[in-house]
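Hello Y.,

Per our agreement to keep a running log of every chain we model this quarter, I'm adding this entry. I've kept the format consistent with earlier entries: sequence first, then predicted structure.
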Amino acid sequence: MELIFFYLIAIVAVASGFLVIRCQSPVNSALGLVNTFFCLAIFYVMLHAPFMAAIQIMVYAGAIMVLIIFVIMLLNLGTEARKRYTTGVVWSAIASLLVLFNVMYFIKRGRVTGAEGDITSYTVESVGHVELIGKALFTEYLLPFEIASILLLVAIVGAVVLAKKEV
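Predicted structure for the entry above:
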């Protein structure tokens, strides 16, 4: 039953990803991306990571998509501004299939090394997912976290400057 549910969600995720690149309207493409983010959150729940699923929905399906929709509406992208070329879609589909076949080949031919990290399942159960992620984020990965926030701020300011009309 769980395998059937996985395949169902996987099909929906792939179909939503396809709609992201095939929709004529940028807003419809963004909605397809939101649906893909929700499917990824369901995958996190299936992997017993509910915190990551909640973060996936709040950060990506919520905040980032609001930012993307805001930029789309601010730049006033119409359907005529986004011409679709079938050759680009065909070449990207061929490249995607090659990557998929390579990944499947290496997964089939690979083997598990047996290496273990510092955090065991006992540590996760006793301390908790949220506390472990918070400690790692604000101690070990604080600089990359701050750099990512500054890059997002620069992107927002750049979008506003580009969309600004002559006064």
